[in-house]
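Margin note: ligand = S-adenosylmethionine.
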Amino acid sequence: MKPPENNVSAWEAAYLRFETREEELRKFLRRLRKLGANGWPKDAEVVEIFCGRGTGLEALRHLGFCRLEGVDLSPALLANYTGPARCVVADCRQLPFPDTSRDLVIVQGGLHHLPKLPDDLEQVVGEVWRVLRPGGRFMVVEPWRTPFLQFVHWVGSFRAARQAWDKLDALETMTELEWDTYEQWLRQPDLVRRCLERHFTVERCHIGWGKLMWLGRKPE
Ligand SMILES: C[S@@+](CC[C@H](N)C(=O)[O-])C[C@H]1O[C@@H](n2cnc3c(N)ncnc32)[C@H](O)[C@@H]1O
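Resulting structure:
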């Protein structure tokens, strides 16, 4: 097991050992391409919320985006990011940006950490809607209850499997430590989609392999 990169909590330490930066980067590039990022204007002003250690921002830079900002609540995770994006420590329930000032907001694996559903989700989605320009896009990638996800957690319920595979152990450790919000999120898929769809017009939506991959657009 690798030591944590910084002075981080138990959850942050598990997150940091779940994937290497290279694995994470490949994953983010795949998701961005699947949701159409190659066709988005490269001078778009992009904010990644719940950006963690910032590998999503690195993926955006690889694809040619250069006006990048990140927001996360954890100074310890943000301290691992060394790229050119402007990163801010803040609570995504109150985004530190003016109204209609950004073109694209991205969240990957952040909304399922919100403590109160639907209130916190309404708040974040309302904030994203507020800071986006008309026509701006909101990209969401979050865990979703699918047979694959249930299978992974079933395998992870065996101690021997966790001992044999560090990545699985890191995933199960994160899941245990965030259990209340994670379980609350997975059990209310209709509420989540209704909240997103009330604010945004759906452009793309893929569900599979334990993930929701969703792209919405703020009406012009
Ligand atoms: C699962 S990590 C995802 C990080 C990154 N998006 C990724 O996919 O690797 C969730 C992140 O959400 C952050 N977070 C949790 N609650 C938050 C909040 N209310 N506002 C901002 N960030 C928050 C945590 O610090 C953590 O970095």
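The chain has a mean pLDDT of 95.
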